[in-house]
């Protein structure tokens, strides 16, 4: 973001152009796989950790709550640290996730016409409520959302992704995750905000099917075959929701442009869209309204927070029902990693990691991270060097494949997928379906 700030100081841009530049920079950042910041990618029900700001439509009149300026990092850390929620374990090392790995072992890996997908139906006896399609972030894939099992031998099971899957399944939703076409390099999604042609809205990438076509193909195959499709009877129709984070969030925001009327709601994490998104959609003369849209973001990323603010304003003024959740930094506790990263991290290891970071002054007095875990500070390897020096080198520590790395990113709340808002997300999306 320093590059963007420098450019902004040298060139006076109009607000629309400035926001457009922000979008392009954000997408460029998550696509630069060779840079140190390439690892942008990105537990439950923690109300006090997420500040919710809702906007919607009532009696045909659009309304949007007034939001204050974006808080500074110091302001975000003020106040008493909130305790873990009961669902996440409370004061015990056992969370819903740590007790539910057997359920998640039902994820099924498939290659559908050369497209990598993992999916799972809700547990037997659970009333089916619909389908949730999930789009991963850069440097990730569909295999992140389930643990390794006989039915998904390639799965790697990252904690936040698995938590999202688990909560959707327990609510009665089938979950379908698809990997982007790019399986080397950045592994980001193609989006309408950076297509293959001169028009930034152009999805044309040549003769090969583009990402949205691949997603549509997977859904066209899976939903009817597994009897997950919305019923042909309007009174029995099941909703199809799209959820995406970072690059996946940008991809999800573009789906109504190419699959109008297919989506009952969108949930976009740590990403926004360019100015004119709704105007572009309506210029295509789509008969279906733009779906209700939720944004989950981390105000510590102030440039992205401003972009989300602009998206909320445009959609709200256009009569689209919207919702916003702001995710704040959280403190590390001795039990936190056992609650999130079990069975890989047990209680003893969780306490050892906490003690090592605390002794190295990586945490402040309340347990908040002093440094961005994506940075190499302190010199010599950052937090990874601290853990190795403490004899914890046997853990998965590599970026984008490490449960601990992901959870530290979430605690810092700069740019990471979060599952803490999943219950709120499903509550809100279901409310929108009921109001239609």
TrEMBL record:
Biased composition, class Low complexity, residue ranges:
57-73
Output the superkingdom of the source species: Eukaryota
- The segment annotated Disordered runs over 57-93
InterPro entries from the xrefs? AB_hydrolase_fold (IPR029058)
- Name listed for the protein in its UniProt record: Uncharacterized protein
The species this protein belongs to is: Pleodorina starrii
């Amino acid at each position: 973001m320093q590059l963007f700030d420098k450019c902004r100081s040298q060139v006076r841009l109009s607000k629309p152009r400035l926001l457009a530049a922000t979008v392009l920079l954000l997408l460029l950042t998550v696509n630069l796989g060779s840079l140190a910041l390439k690892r942008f990618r990105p537990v439950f029900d923690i109300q006090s950790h997420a500040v919710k700001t809702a906007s919607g439509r009532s009696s045909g009149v659009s309304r949007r709550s007034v939001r204050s300026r974006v808080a500074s990092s110091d302001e975000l850390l003020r106040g008493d640290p909130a305790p873990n929620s009961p669902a996440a374990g409370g004061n015990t090392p056992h969370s819903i996730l740590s007790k539910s790995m057997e359920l998640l072992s039902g994820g099924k890996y498939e290659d559908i016409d050369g497209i990598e997908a993992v999916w799972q139906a809700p547990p037997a006896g659970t009333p089916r409520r619909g389908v949730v399609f999930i789009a991963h972030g850069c440097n990730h894939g569909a295999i992140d959302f389930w643990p390794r099992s006989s039915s998904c031998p390639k799965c790697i099971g990252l904690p936040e992704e698995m938590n999202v899957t688990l909560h959707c399944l327990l609510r009665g939703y089938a979950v379908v995750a698809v990997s982007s076409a790019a399986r080397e390099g950045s592994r980001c999604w193609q989006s309408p905000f950076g297509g293959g042609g001169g028009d930034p809205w152009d999805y044309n990438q040549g003769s090969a099917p583009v990402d949205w076509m691949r997603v549509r193909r997977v859904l066209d195959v899976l939903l009817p075959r597994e009897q997950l499709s919305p019923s042909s009877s309007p009174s029995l129709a099941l909703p199809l929701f799209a959820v995406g984070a970072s690059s996946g969030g940008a991809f999800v925001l573009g789906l109504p442009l190419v699959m109008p009327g297919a989506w009952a709601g969108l949930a976009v994490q740590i990403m926004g869209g360019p100015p004119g998104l709704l105007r572009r959609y309506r210029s295509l003369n789509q008969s279906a309204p733009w779906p209700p849209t939720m944004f989950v973001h981390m105000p510590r990323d102030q440039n992205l927070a401003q972009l989300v603010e602009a998206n909320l304003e445009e959609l709200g003024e256009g009569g689209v029902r919207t919702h916003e959740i702001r995710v704040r930094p959280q403190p590390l506790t001795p039990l936190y990693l056992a609650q999130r990263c079990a069975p890989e991290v047990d209680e003893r290891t969780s306490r050892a990691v906490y003690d090592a970071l605390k002794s190295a002054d990586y945490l402040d007095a309340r347990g908040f991270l002093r440094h961005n875990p994506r940075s190499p500070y302190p010199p010599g390897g950052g937090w990874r060097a601290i853990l190795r020096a403490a004899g914890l080198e046997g853990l998965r520590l590599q970026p984008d494949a490490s449960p601990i790395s992901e959870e530290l990113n979430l605690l810092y709340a700069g740019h990471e997928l979060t599952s803490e808002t999943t219950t709120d997300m499903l509550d809100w999306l279901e409310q929108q379906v009921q109001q239609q």
